[in-house]
Amino acid sequence: MRSEQEILQLVLDFAGGDDRIRLVLLNGSRANPNAARDLLQDYDIACLVPQVAPFRRRPDIVARFGELLILQTPEDMGDPPPGDSGFYAYLMQFTDGVRIDLSFHPLDRLEAILQDSLTVVLLDKDRRLAPLPPASDASYLPVPPTEKQFQDCCNEFWWVCPYVAKGLWRDELTNAHYFLEVVREQLMMMLEWYFGVRTGFRKSPGKKGKYLRPGLEPELWAELERTYADARPEHVWQALFAMGGLFRRTGEVVAAAFGYDYPCQEDANVSAFLERIRALPRGAREF
After folding, report:
1. What tens digit of pLDDT does each residue of 198-208 get?
2. Could you say which of 46, 96, 150, 216 would form a disulfide bridge with 25 (CB–CB 3.0 to 4.6 Å)?
3. What does the alpha-carbon distance between residue 128 and residue 70 come to, in Å, rounded to a whole number?
4. What SS3 state is found at 26?
5. Is residue 180 within 8 Å of residue 196, measured between CB atoms?
6. Which of 106, 139, 172 is a domain's end point?
7. Do residue 200 and residue 135 come from a single domain?
8. What gap in Å lies between CA 222 and CA 128, rounded to an integer?
């Protein structure tokens, strides 16, 4: 596997040999001094150019960076549809384990890109930039919820839980698992706020909660582990109730921290409703 020094030199050689590339920036975890280092970290490279069009659909660019395992160009895809971002990216996974996300952006987007606190300047041909602050994860710290955000999260969590229960009662496994993940989205939001309360909103929980574990008590982490179910319906039921217990426990802490009201009655009503569905015989005609 090629080293970080080799990859960055490869990027600089590529950019240095093309006069249209005026700036090269490193973003993401490799720019983050607080991120643990490992050999599978991506290289997030942004090139600033006068015009993006000449860099679209260029197999020769991809070929410069190694033996390709698989390539994705999101702006060329129909599903998911591309956004109107104005940039073009080559997401490249190479056979030696290196992954490079190489993107090309118009120069007039420079200020917007620099809003990302995880930015390191690799090349500035025109000396456009004053020295940047040291890269940090400041842009990725959790933000305290407004009261409406908190209440909306609680409402969505408890509103969707019955969908999981109905899917289980009907023996519709894929449907139940789909809605279990919708419920999980709200649980993860609450856990990030809880993490923020415990850390003073000074640490990042990471993308999709990948750094949550050190910010949770061991028993809460164990409860989170129990929310991941297999295909057995009884295990999905257990996961659903584990989610409810974990959401309740962390939600009450977050509510207390900000002086909000946790919706105890909605929680109690829905929890009892779930238990009734769980006990309902298959094919019952009365509730």
Report:
1. 999 999 999 99
2. 46
3. 35
4. strand
5. no
6. 139
7. no
8. 50
